[in-house]
Design brief:
This protein is mostly helical. It has ten helices and no strands.
Length: 196
């Protein structure tokens, strides 16, 4: 049997902790709960993480870093494929919304438990959130017919908030597909809700 490397095991523990934090809430979760979920001793967890808040910090900062890489790769691929800025932006919003939906437990734990992060992890998480926000804002203002009467920062916050809310209410198989919901989000974002 192949030995699992340190990072892989650390990620497995983090994934187990994520499930526990999501289901019980961070405050009501213990390292014993994480230990039961993954099937290793608490002492085994201490080999990878010193305490519970270190696990939470690891989950949330690593998630942000992966998300940033995905969005940047999406932009680069769109540019390689010669998409105009509007199509690039639509594709970016789809990637953002898909990521939020696929990793809804991480996103929910981030929103719900962010205040538990220690200073080091809070700074890293805030930095990641700023980078994600800037990606959306910076690509938005590159669209030729972006309404310059709108403040791009306010508009980007509205877009990010709208997309982040998906994981709170959308459930696949309850009438609409994720693709349809994302397309409607993009339509509202780019065209508004009122008829001409």
């Amino acid at each position: 049997m192949a030995r699992i490397d340190f990072e892989e095991k650390k990620n497995q523990i983090a994934d187990a902790a994520l499930k526990v934090f999501y289901e019980k809430g961070y405050d009501k979760s213990s390292l014993q709960d994480v230990s039961k979920e993954i099937g290793i001793s608490k002492a085994g967890i201490y080999h990878y993480f010193k305490e519970k808040d270190e696990i939470l910090g690891y989950i949330l900062t690593k998630h942000g870093e992966v998300f940033i890489k995905e969005l940047k790769a999406n932009i680069e691929e769109s540019k390689k494929n010669g998409l105009d800025q509007l199509e690039l932006f639509k594709r970016l919003l789809r990637a953002y919304a898909n990521h939020i939906s696929i990793f809804k437990y991480r996103s929910m734990v981030l929103v719900r438990e962010l205040h538990h992060l220690t200073n080091e992890y809070k700074e890293k998480s805030n930095k990641n959130q700023t980078i994600l926000f800037n990606i959306i804002r910076d690509e938005l203002i590159k669209i030729d017919n972006f309404n310059r009467k709108l403040n791009p920062t306010v508009t980007a916050f509205l877009i990010v908030g709208m997309l982040n809310s998906l994981n709170r209410w959308f459930r696949e198989g309850k009438g609409m597909s994720l693709k349809v919901v994302i397309d409607q989000h993009i339509n509202v974002i780019l065209n508004g809700i009122l008829k001409d």
